[in-house]
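Each field is set out underneath.
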Amino acid sequence: MSTAFKVVIPARYASTRLPGKPLLQLAGRPMLQHVHDCARQSGAQEIVVATDDRRIEAVATAFGAQVCMTSAEHSSGTERLSEVVEGLGWQQDVIVVNLQGDEPMMPPALIRQVAGNLAAHETAAIATLASPVTDSGQMTDPNVVKVVLDRAGFALYFSRAPIPWRRDSEAGQQPGDGYGSGLHHIGMYAYRAGFLQRYKQLEPSPLEAVEKLEQLRALWHGLKIHVGIATALPGPGVDTEADLLRVEQLLQARQDT
């Protein structure tokens, strides 16, 4: 039996590296529309674009998306989701997937997977996904977030640093080389609506301030995050001009086949 879930897509205009990022054109359509298509193909019961910008609202409404205007004061996408849940009056047990507005190639199967993982783990406050690290460059790249798990698949820690650190590596060998358990965190989350309503009451963590990783707030407060191993490789997200060009080429190639 498939899991029922909703998707919220937080979309901000004020990106520091790519201003107006959700509205940038990819293969003839705004990036946000590609993300919305991924959510639609996942079988979500309801899809909501959450934004604080009227330009994003106008574009999203034009391609048929449901939009919820939210405060410009939120410091994270999770806080924005909390406002959506409260404003739309979703029941506490509703599963909500946070799909970032700069992930135009997220496989719909992974959206379903993260929702199903949360449903299958009642003790988890949050569910997310990870995929094996494929090279040492990923281990040392601070833009690739790493995660280590306990034996039951719950997160012990997330970091931009190379974790786990291979203490006995040989000279010239990079951290993680030859170590099969290095995991790259995929920044997509599933929550229950009731947790999102409580999240805004959680005091921010010093760790989240240092690493700039909002999921560390939950671990700081002793909450469990289940991490499933992704059943497919996610497509690249868009953070830079180079990412934009790469995704444009991939989407164009997909359309041409």
Notes: DSSP finds nine helices and eleven strands in the chain.
